[in-house]
Write a structure and sequence with these properties.
The structure is a single chain. The chain has 17 helices and 13 strands. It is α/β, with parallel strands linked by helices. An eight-stranded parallel beta barrel has the order 1-2-3-4-9-10-11-13, surrounded by eight helices. Strands 5-6 form a two-stranded antiparallel sheet. The two termini are 31 Å apart. The C terminus is likely disordered.
Length: 478
């Protein structure tokens, strides 16, 4: 039995492309406040470790078909600040992009969120660029993309130095002596790097947690190195358990080689469970979600501009090794047709059968649409009963594949509440999850120690007002 970190990745209109179309689903982002508040109450009642809010810094009509939850969404720091006032124990993680953010402004907002929440804030640092986001920030996308990792390394160093501007006992507040601040315990940042230059100090006391837990996701070698050297949580999307084991071992090795205690790096995988009263019920939900996903052939005169090109029969044809052009997307997939498929196509048929219960030789065979959806919608799904899902979580933990999961919900609020009310008790029964919160802060939930101030650790920065030369830190980070 392995105790796992379990958080919820919140997408207010659901994490599946057709989730908003499912009966009873939340659809209108203008009503997100009530949905987020309810989700926070349910998640805290279930004793989840944290709520996680991703971000995307642009919008457009193409996102309606690709990732509808990205079309319109609230700012993640605003979301965690709002939820800090309606919760008391659960962690709250917001996302910020180091390519576009100002480090002083972000340090101030996140330190404030940590103080206001009593030490429950976390920060997911992303580096990815996107042309529309760059244009929204007046940046050159190509130039920015070339330097994004180097800027992220500097950004993380600056954040920690800004968070450590005040020693924990810098505010004396001695009314009798008339002494409010010990100036020796307020530290300049004085960072001058290739991409960032920040004077400091920050005008917010040191966060309750010292440093907010830092999260990073990415698949490139530079992203993995950044996570291994600097992150507390590494988010890694994986296809299967063996791949997860290999990636976790790689990240832990990189962390050890960087000079840190590799046990302090927690590897977290996203997962999308479909929960039903029975396995057949869960499969029927997955089946309906698949049937509600639109594919290119739903528009006889051509799909709308920006429609995902991979969600089509032409793309499926390449995968299965058989020309399917001109066929109806709702044509049944029969055993003779499957016999003509490539090995990859036949494996896809098995995935659809596992998720939806549809079998080519059964009474309800899958359709070509089911195959297109399974091939094009990138989601690590587990479909089944609470016991099925808990058993899979347990197997991954015991195999050393992950340290925890970021749980996505296909439909809000229905599937989120099914997980919280039905799967979580089974996880707790197996000893995978706590039954009560044991700590007060997000760091304590994650099993992370309080960090020492960087100024105490390296002695590189003098108190404000003392002469000091510019410091250009090593890119090894923290």
């Amino acid at each position: 039995m392995t105790r796992l970190i379990i958080g919820a990745m919140v997408r207010a209109i659901g994490a599946y492309p057709s989730g908003w179309r499912y009966p009873g689903a939340h659809r209108d982002p203008r009503g997100d406040a009530a949905v987020l508040r309810r989700a926070a109450e349910v998640a805290e009642g279930a004793r989840l470790d944290y709520l996680f809010f991703g971000d995307w810094l642009a919008t457009g009509p193409d996102l309606e078909f690709q990732d509808p939850y990205l079309v319109a969404r609230v700012d993640p720091i605003a979301a965690i600040t709002y939820l800090a006032g309606v919760t008391s124990r659960i962690g709250l993680i917001a996302t910020a992009n180091t390519s576009y953010s100002d480090p002083y402004t972000l340090a101030r907002a996140t330190a404030s969120a940590d103080l206001l929440s009593g030490g429950r804030a976390g920060l997911n640092l992303v580096t990815g660029g996107e042309p529309r986001a760059a244009a929204n920030h007046g940046a050159d996308f190509h130039a920015l993309n070339r330097s994004r990792h180097d800027r992220a390394v500097e950004f993380e160093i600056v954040l920690r130095r800004l968070w450590d501007s005040f020693d924990d006992d810098a505010i004396v507040a001695d009314a009798a002596r008339g002494v409010y601040l010990d100036p020796q315990k307020l530290h300049a940042t004085d960072f001058h790097g290739e991409h960032l230059s920040v004077a400091g100090p920050l005008n917010v006391p040191r966060p309750v947690q010292g440093h907010l837990p830092i999260v990073h996701a990415g698949i490139s070698p530079r992203s993995r190195l950044f996570a291994a050297q600097s992150a507390d949580l590494a988010l890694v999307a994986v296809g299967d358990r063996q791949q997860a084991i290999a990636i976790r071992e790689e990240l832990r090795s990189l962390a050890f080689e960087s000079g840190r205690d590799d046990r302090t790096l927690k590897v977290i995988a996203p997962v999308l469970p479909i929960v039903g009263e029975t396995r057949e019920h869960a499969q029927s939900i997955a089946d309906e979600l698949s049937e509600l996903v639109q594919i290119a052939e739903d528009w006889p005169d051509g799909a709308p501009a920006g429609f995902p090109p991979h969600r089509s029969l032409s793309q499926l044809s390449q995968l299965v090794g058989l020309d399917l052009a001109g066929l109806s997307p709702d044509r049944a997939v029969s055993p003779p047709l499957v016999a003509e498929f490539s090995a990859a196509g036949q494996e896809l048929v098995e995935i659809v059968a596992e998720r939806t219960g549809r079998n080519p030789s059964g009474e309800r065979p899958p359709t070509l649409r089911h195959l297109v959806v399974a091939a094009s919608v990138n989601a690590s799904m587990i479909v089944g009963t609470p016991d099925d899902i808990a058993a899979e979580f347990e197997a991954w933990g015991d195999a050393g594949a992950v340290d925890g999961f970021n749980v996505l919900s296909a439909v809000q609020p229905q599937q989120f509440e099914e997980f919280a009310f039905r799967v979580v008790p089974e996880l707790a029964r197996r000893g995978i999850m706590r039954t009560e919160y044991e700590g007060e802060t997000l760091r304590e939930h994650l099993g992370l120690a309080q960090p020492v101030s960087v100024h105490a650790a390296d002695g590189a920065h003098a108190a404000v007002g003392e002469h000091e030369a510019s410091v250009v830190p090593s890119t090894a980070g923290y």
